Amino acid sequence: MDFSLTIAPATEADIPDIVALVNSAYRGDVSRQGWTTEAHLLDGQRTDAEDIRDLLTGPGGAILQARNEAGQLVGSVYVKEQQPDLYMGMLSVSPAHQGTGLGKRLMAAVEEHARQVGCTSLLISVISVRDELLAWYERHGFRRTGETIAFPTDTRFGIPKQPLKLLLLRKEL
């Protein structure tokens, strides 16, 4: 990556930027510019301000945000302590910055955060039919646990176009 980046915890003032970033990375036409789109699997939004506020203020939860030298939000990731795991979710990189190594830098920040709070592994959930995303995480040290979770039924997080389930993956630190 050839630009400087600041990664720091988000605050409630960052909620509008985070909502816009996450939705642009996963849903709608803009998301199709990047490889992390879920637009072919789900209609509707990925998140909203209420969801992000709940994640930010929930016990053990935080959102790490990455801003470029101009202060523009270009990436974010949700983390939550679930000892011994640190759950990592909603890893989002703006479609214009995908493929630049930003996701790897965010994951390195998550690993550092996990160590600081005493977690010994990372835990993630990935839609089972997202083969390219599963492969990306596996290349970065995650392994499938064999566990699955039902896909959320709350339509404010998306409307599935087909039956979906989530796979759990873990990375030992």
TrEMBL record:
Residues 5-173 form the N-acetyltransferase domain. It comes from the Bacteria. The keyword Transferase applies. One of its GO terms (molecular function) is acyltransferase activity, transferring groups other than amino-acyl groups. Gene3D superfamilies: 3.40.630.30. PROSITE patterns: GNAT (PS51186). Signal peptide: none annotated. The keyword Transferase applies. Keywords: Acyltransferase, Transferase. InterPro entries: Acyl_CoA_acyltransferase, Bact_Acetyltransf, GNAT_dom. This is GNAT family N-acetyltransferase. It comes from Hymenobacter wooponensis.
